[in-house]
């Protein structure tokens, strides 16, 4: 039985602009015109904060997160700045913290922006994260991420990342992985590590030809990436290690993870319309999932809201899927198959299944060796549930995800213990009586 969805947005992707100065070859963005007005930004923040305030006392406290998105959000810096300044006044008034994430292509950072960010960053009520899209080394990056004149964007981004790191502590680089750039993945990953950012994400596109040969190369390259990660002495966030571990734990606890479109997450267009997430904003010209707007709010009895509920009920395969490298993207499934509950048929699911199978034993080993760790308390909970199973105190702990596997191991343990009880009893019985 799938739980009813309850709209409780805590994270908003705000389209500050649809404009972008790059023409990346794999970009899904179809609308490249229109900026968000500063007043719309203020209305968007007001709507999310007031919606959140209503829920605040009914639910455990969790920070609101505002992600400035686009297009390239820094192309509309006045609206970004209005948003940040307005959020600051709200945080002061209501005494709470918010997350501010900026997802940028890293090409349009000016001195004025850097100075502004430096002045605002020490403010205590913001949790910052700045993510830059960078596809590895210069050759791979410039093959896709080009300006309108087809010139590569690598040089300017690599210079700007250094400036961004001087301002923000939490900086991430995100590489888009495609079947075409898979062969040089470990070389590109090494180039990403050389920037020393605390977060490195490799994100495969859903579209593309994920055939068997490409999948095998992907797995081999990922293994090399993990080796490189440890050889280079890194202990920061790498999604294929840390996110995978989180997902293994979530699967063990049967927590619902992955896509929370229209539930925890919303997307707000430049015109102030509310959608289930950023991708639904981007595809809105083709498929209209508009839930309402930041002035009137969401119509929970409206058609779009019903469609979101219905897609969650129908997406059985995705909802039961245990792979940990896929976010089960309803919007992309809509785009590819005209049905958000359908799954891609281009080898993408097979790729994720095979990667999950290949990474599981590696992650277990790293966990046992203490090279990866769980959140406080989770290790103990997993042990209690028998998921983190120790055969004996001399053997290393092993993370077991499959419930049947857990049951089988518990049975073996029970049989062993019964055998021990039986031998103790026969020993007792064989003792000479006084
Ligand atoms: S791998 Fe396929 S089935 Fe699994 S969540 Fe992703 S899209 Fe859904
Ligand atoms: S996984 Fe897809 S549908 Fe879900 S929130 Fe992300 S982009 Fe949107």
Description:
This protein has helices at residues 38-56, 77-94, 111-120, 138-144, 154-167, 185-193, 212-231, 239-252, 278-282, 303-314, 316-320, 330-337, 348-368, 378-385, 403-430, and strands at 11-15, 64-69, 98-104, 126-133, 171-177, 199-204, 237-238, 265-268, 273-275, 292-293, 297-298, 388-389, 398-399. It has 434 residues and is an alpha/beta fold. It folds into 2 domains: 11-331, TIM Barrel (Alpha-Beta Barrel); 402-434. It has an 11-stranded mixed beta sheet with strand order 7-6-5-4-3-2-1-8-9-10-11. The chain has a two-stranded antiparallel sheet with strand order 12-13. A hairpin with an 8-residue loop joins strand 12 (388-389) and strand 13. Mean pLDDT is 84; it is low at 385-396. Bound molecules: iron/sulfur cluster (SF4) (2 copies).
Outline of this structure?
The protein has 434 residues and is of the alpha/beta class.
Q: Key terms for this structure?
A:
binds iron/sulfur cluster, TIM Barrel, two-stranded antiparallel sheet, single chain, 434 residues, 13% strand, globular, eleven-stranded mixed β-sheet, 2 domains, alpha/beta, 15 helices
């Amino acid at each position: 039985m799938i739980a009813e969805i309850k709209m409780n947005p805590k994270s908003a992707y705000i389209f500050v602009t649809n404009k972008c100065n790059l023409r990346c070859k794999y970009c899904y963005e179809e609308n490249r015109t229109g900026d968000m007005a500063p007043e719309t930004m203020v209305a968007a923040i007001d709507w999310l904060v007031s919606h959140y305030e209503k829920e605040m006392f009914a639910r455990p406290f969790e920070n609101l997160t505002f992600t400035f998105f686009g297009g390239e959000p820094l192309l509309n810096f006045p609206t970004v700045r209005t948003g940040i300044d307005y959020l600051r006044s709200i945080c002061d008034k209501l005494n709470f913290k918010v997350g501010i994430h900026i997802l940028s292509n890293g090409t349009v950072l000016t001195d004025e922006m850097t100075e502004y960010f430096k002045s605002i960053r020490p403010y205590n009520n913001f949790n910052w994260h700045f993510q830059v899209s960078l596809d590895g080394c210069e050759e791979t990056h410039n093959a896709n991420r080009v300006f309108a004149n087809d010139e590569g964007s690598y040089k300017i981004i690599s210079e700007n990342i250094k400036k961004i790191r001087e301002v923000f502590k939490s900086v991430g680089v995100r590489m888009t992985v495609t079947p075409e750039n898979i062969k040089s993945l470990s070389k590109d990953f090494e180039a990403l590590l050389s920037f020393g950012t605390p977060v490195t994400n490799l994100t495969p596109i859903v579209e593309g030809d994920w055939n068997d040969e490409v999948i095998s190369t992907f797995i081999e390259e990922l293994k090399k990436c993990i080796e490189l990660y440890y050889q280079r002495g890194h202990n920061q966030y790498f999604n294929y290690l840390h996110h995978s571990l989180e997902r293994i734990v979530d699967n063990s606890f049967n927590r619902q993870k992955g896509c929370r479109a229209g539930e925890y997450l919303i997307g707000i267009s430049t015109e102030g319309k509310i959608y289930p997430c950023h991708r639904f904003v981007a595809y809105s010209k083709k498929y209209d999932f508009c839930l309402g707007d930041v002035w009137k709010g969401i119509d929970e009895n409206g058609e779009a809201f019903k469609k979101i509920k219905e897609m969650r009920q129908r997406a059985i395969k995705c909802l039961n899927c245990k792979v940990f490298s896929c976010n089960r993207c309803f919007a992309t499934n809509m785009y590819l198959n005209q049905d958000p509950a359908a799954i891609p048929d281009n080898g993408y699911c097979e790729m994720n299944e095979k990667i999950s199978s290949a990474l599981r034993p590696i992650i277990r080993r790293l966990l046992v060796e203490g090279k990866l760790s769980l959140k406080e308390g989770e290790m103990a909970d997993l042990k209690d549930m028998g998921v983190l199973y120790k055969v004996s105190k001399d053997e290393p702990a092993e993370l077991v995800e499959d419930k049947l596997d857990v049951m089988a191991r518990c049975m073996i343990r029970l049989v062993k213990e019964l055998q021990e009880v039986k031998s103790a009893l026969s020993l007792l019985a064989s003792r000479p009586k006084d």
